[in-house]
Automatic annotation (TrEMBL):
Name of this protein: NAD-dependent epimerase/dehydratase family protein
Superkingdom classification of source: Bacteria
Domain called NAD-dependent epimerase/dehydratase: residue spans: 9-247
InterPro entries xref list: Epimerase_deHydtase, NAD(P)-bd_dom_sf, NAD(P)_dehydrat-like
Transmembrane domains' residue ranges: none
Ranges in a coiled coil: none
Amino acid sequence: MDIDTTRPVMVTGATGYVAGWLVKRLLDAGLTVHAAVRDPDNAEKRGHLDAMAEDAPGSIRYFGADLLTPGSYKEAMAGCSIVFHTASPFTIAVKDPQKDLIEPAQLGTRNVLESVNDTPSVERVVLTSSCAAIYGDNADLADTPNGVFTEEIWNSSSSVDHQAYSYSKLLAEKEAWKIADAQSRWRLVTVNPSLVIGPGTNAKATSESFNIVKQIGDGTMRMGIPDIGFGAVDVRDVAEAHVRAAFVPEAEGRFIVSGHNTGFLEMARTLLDRYGDAYPIPRRKLPKWLVWLVGPLTTKGLTREFISRNVDLPWRADNRRSRDILGMTYRPLEESMNDFFAQLIDSGRLKKRTA
């Protein structure tokens, strides 16, 4: 893989969880990174990126931009050969799904790609999509041709009222392909990760991934954990997939980026050998009837429809395109989880049990 370092690249949402590792990888490769962020003067939020740039052969420049402000990415994009669009909210419990999830995802994607159309230097766009654009619930697996999720499948079960986050990712990626297919100058490649785990470049970062793993270790799930299947992938591998999607000449279309077909219980078990004595990590699964009974009463956003269509159901996806075309290899689940858990401890988010 040859990486052209003669022209800058742009990263939207550069202070984000996935974007942090992506920026590091680009800087280490010697690239000039145009970091598009909401507040470029916020030294605290960009501090970890500045530290990366100090020790890297590449360099970083900051530009102010907002997903919902038309044209705000044009300055950052000028002269760039690649645009990495990573900015999109990842949260489950929101008051207004339309305003908090769908509009930033769909309209933000439209805003960025309309600026791409106006920027002649851009040759390729790498969009951070999600496996959520491929499926909405584990029950959807029963309707797949071979009992596995592939890049040919699109989410058909989510809506603004059910799995709104997944619906936002579907609409955003559909919007991207609509704009890309209407022109022929630049190429769109989408990276579709499953649940992203692993340590952040910023230990104080906020993401639903941090919340999930924190709850595995803070006692929230000490009595047991629902058996929900899903895919998982290390954040460092996701960043590498973005770079390969940008610079591997054959890369085109969608790529499922997922290292493991797993679930909550298996993820928790990877932590037991090292942390099981000191932290209340769940060791057993909760029966579905109990999750059905008490889940909606104790967990915001956990509906009985979600429980019916996801608990005690497996998740399987085919990651062969990412391995065959991008040349991806994936870290062991144990490595990702233990590195992530260690960071949560070191940053003070997790405390040892007192009794």
